[in-house]
Design goal:
By secondary structure, the protein is an alpha+beta fold. It has one domain. Helix content is 23%, strand content 32%. It is built from four helices and eight strands; from the N terminus they run βββαββββαβαα. The protein has an eight-stranded antiparallel β-sheet with strand order 3-2-1-8-4-5-6-7. Strand 6 and strand 7 form a beta hairpin. The mean pLDDT is 88. The structure holds zinc ion. Zinc ion (ZN) binds next to loops.
Length: 170
């Protein structure tokens, strides 16, 4: 059995803490992005990063995701393009290298995940193992195998349910 099936779903305001770690404030509880992504390091994944305002309002910077509007200047450029929305989808092998998270596609192109644009903005990060555990080892050999596959299927179902509930809010 290879890498374990894994999902990541965090949403909130991205920021750097005093130790320069990339964090997400999820309504008062902060998580480190590195802690969330580490289980997926080296795995083939699908990753999405986008602005995710609590309530989408097209008259506000980034649809309401931008925390810099009252300051009048946004590092992501909302003072010049108020309607700009971050929306990135990447598929490939996730690796932390050169002090940043990047995804290497099948053609060898490496793209940094543009977390800097998420800082100071209410955003959502989704990452999911790209392989299907139900297909990767489709011949269960023991009751424990069957139980493991069932547990993984349940985790996938719960993740997708949670994702749909989040998506419906937009
Ligand atoms: Zn902004």
């Amino acid at each position: 059995m290879g890498a374990e099936f894994c999902t990541v779903l965090v949403e909130g305001i991205f920021y750097r803490d005093g130790a320069d770690r990339l964090m997400v404030d999820q309504s008062g509880t902060s998580v480190a992005v590195a802690d969330e992504l580490r289980p997926l390091d080296g795995q083939e994944i699908l990753l999405a990063l986008h602005y995710f305002p609590l309530t989408f309002d097209p008259t506000l910077w980034g649809g309401g995701s931008c925390q810099y509007q009252s300051a009048g200047r946004c590092p992501a450029g909302h003072h010049q393009e108020p309607g700009k929305m971050l929306s990135v989808t990447l598929r490939g092998v996730l690796r932390y290298e050169d002090e940043g998270w990047g995804v290497t596609a099948a053609d060898g192109t490496r793209t940094f995940v543009p977390f800097e644009h998420a800082i100071g903005h209410r955003s959502r990060l989704v990452a999911i193992s790209a392989f299907n555990p139900l297909l990767a080892d489709a011949t269960p050999r023991s009751p424990a195998d069957i139980e493991r596959l069932r547990a993984e299927a349940t985790r996938l179902r719960d993740f997708l349910t949670q994702f749909q509930q989040h998506a419906r809010k937009v």
